[in-house]
Specification:
Length: about 300
């Protein structure tokens, strides 16, 4: 029997949830190190072991946005599950942001829009906000009396190589049905999607708005990545002839070990992400993480307006 054992431990500071689902087992004579980034919950875990914080657990929040930069209006999305692992859907969700507990308590609780159209297995909540500075931030998701807390990184826009709003898309060739460029399969969707007829560099030179989706349908594993390719295809005909749509895969093959060149060219560490660029190639909107038909249609409509 272990000398110390934790199972599913959660902890709060006031109304803010700092730990969720922590499992830990230490046997006699064993040395265990607790490692993690700032804000990950190392100290809180040790306080839970020593009974200096109260443990509980009702709600869990998963940030879906990963291209978060300071100093500009920022779309931010989260997924929510309850203590039984069930999706929290169509709820009155409020999101607050801060770099510490005092900022979180003082921050406005923003009402989050619920999105599910065409993405029933990966619904999410979305707000638009602005982060004053780069660094470690926290999102507090409030549903009734329950609050969940999760850390995320806000980056300095000047240090980000990935095209964000106001910057040009990087013009690089992407695999097409005529030239797979060593990517097999060219599309992990079955059947292969119709967004591989034109290479990205040719699309950007066409003088039309461009929609570039970088995603891997078959290898999508996270709680928030969603069936974004299917969502884009479902609204494609509404913008036929007006927007050049290109899909690029993340990996060279189904092993998922080697990334395609566009991941390096765009300095991406996560996916999926949909870039929407004006006819001059400058990015107007970035939908990182999940999006549904409502967001896709609205963003594409703005692009062609």
């Amino acid at each position: 029997m272990p000398l110390l054992e934790l199972r599913g431990v959660a902890a709060r500071y006031g109304g803010l949830q700092a730990l969720r689902g922590i499992d830990l087992s230490v046997d006699e004579g064993e040395i265990v190190a607790v490692l993690g980034a700032n804000g990950a919950g190392k100290t809180t875990t040790l306080r839970a072991i020593s009974a200096t914080v109260k443990t509980s657990g009702d709600l869990q929040v998963f940030p879906g946005s990963f291209l978060v930069v300071a100093g500009a209006d920022q779309r931010f999305v989260v997924g929510l599950v309850d203590k039984a692992g069930r999706l929290v859907t169509n709820a009155d969700v409020r999101l607050a942001f801060g770099r510490n507990e005092s900022e979180l308590r003082a921050a406005p609780a923003l009402p989050a829009a619920f999105h599910v159209d065409g993405i029933p297995t990966k619904p999410y909540y979305e707000v638009t906000t602005r982060f004053a500075a780069s660094g470690k931030w926290y999102v507090a998701a409030r549903v009734g009396a329950d609050t969940a807390l999760q850390a995320f990184d806000v980056r300095d826009a000047a240090s980000v190589r990935t095209p964000v709003a106001g910057r040009p898309l990087t013009s690089v060739p992407t695999p097409t049905t005529a030239d797979h460029m060593g990517v097999e399969p060219i599309c992990t969707r079955q059947p292969v999607c119709p967004l591989h007829d034109v290479s990205l560099d040719k699309a950007l030179a066409s003088g039309k708005p461009t929609a570039l989706l970088i995603a891997t349908p078959a290898l999508c594993q996270s709680r928030t990545c969603g069936p974004v390719l299917e969502v884009l295809l479902s609204v494609r005909d509404e913008f036929a002839g007006r927007v050049q749509m290109v899909h690029a895969e993340v990996f060279r093959d189904l092993s998922g070990r080697q990334e395609t060149p566009i991941m390096g060219a765009y300095a991406l560490e996560n996916e999926p992400v949909l870039f929407l660029a004006r006819p001059d190639g400058v990015v107007q909107t970035v939908l990182d993480g999940p999006y549904d038909r409502v967001e896709a249609r609205a963003s594409l409509t703005r692009l062609v307006s």
